Amino acid sequence: MTALAEGLGGSLPQSLADWGPAQLAAVVIAGYLVVGEPFVGHVLHRRFEGRLKVDPAARQSLYRRLLVLEWGLAVVALVVWLSAPDVGAPQVGLAWPRQWPGPVTLAVCLALLVLVVLSTRTLRSGALAGPPPPARPGEGRHAEPPGHTTLALLPRTGLERRLFAVVGVTAGVCEEWLYRGFFLAVVAALAPGLPGALLVLVAAAGFGLAHAYQGPGGVLTTGVLGGVLAAVYLQSGSLLLPVLLHVLIDLRFLIVPASSLPAAAR
After folding, report:
1. Model confidence over 207-221: pLDDT tens digits?
2. DSSP state, 136?
3. 258 falls in which pLDDT band (50, 70, 90)?
4. d(CA 38, CA 104)
5. pLDDT at position 252 over 60
6. Kindly report the CA angle at 65 between 257 and 174, in degrees rounded to 5?
7. DSSP code at position 212
8. HEC assignment per residue over 139-202
């Protein structure tokens, strides 16, 4: 397990003092990523669900808000890092890969990509295109099955697809910088000597909680993804490979036609 950190060669910050005058701001942002982001995501998603029933431009509006929020937070974190005199670019993953991830991590990545391909084929087949089942007493008009609420986020029109492509690239760049590069550098500074395996678990938990609006299944799925990407980052010493994987995983939805998505989400 300790091999998970070999790619960084111990270059993660070893003390919160490394962050210098930016240490308080760094801890606040890291705390927001774990505590504040789940709340903000929940509020945004609930508002989106309400607008979707009456506003045909609800998805476009949500995509634009996500772009502003993600890039805004990423820039703030970048400014905080630039204010830390003793935290270099390699310590936050802003470097070329030093080595390929280990065989175990590569095998897990391959398995993940296979699951992604299979899930995309399921969407394209229209297997989830039916309406949600009738609600049981006390559940409202419909009982949303797992995945239907999240699928409402996916684009339908040409403009939505173009915006979604920008959102997908943004998520790959900004979320990897925030949840892998920046967040793990702060965690390592708060808990010096933390084994690589625990860093992966912390990254998985933080990333999963950020997607709490997707429900327990979404938290688990994105948590696993966050853990895998953290392992790739720690072993390669660079955010480059996680960013590429993240972008590809998000952009796969662009090949799913609107006719294959749930009727309730359309």
Report:
1. 999 999 988 988 999
2. P
3. confident
4. 31
5. yes
6. 85
7. G
8. CCCECCCCCHHHHCCCCCCHHHHHHHHHHHHHHHHHHHHHHHHHHHHHHHHHCCCCCHHHHHHH
- The angle subtended at Cα 87 by Cα 9 and Cα 26, nearest 5°, is 120
Judged against a pLDDT cut of 50, whether residue 142 lies above it is answered with no
| Secondary structure (3-state) at 134 | strand
pTM of the model: 0.87
Contact partners, residue 100, CB within 8 Å, separation at least 6 = 106, 235, 236
Contact between 221 and 26 (Cβ < 8 Å): no
Q: Which two tokens stand for residue 172?
A: 């790959």
Q: How far apart are the C-alpha atoms of 3 and 196, rounded to whole Å?
A: 7
Residue 127 pLDDT level (bands cut at 50, 70, 90): low
Cβ atoms of 98 and 242 closer than 8 Å:
no
Res 122: pLDDT: 82
Nearest to 1 by CA among 191, 195, 185: 195
CB 209 within 8 A of CB 219: yes
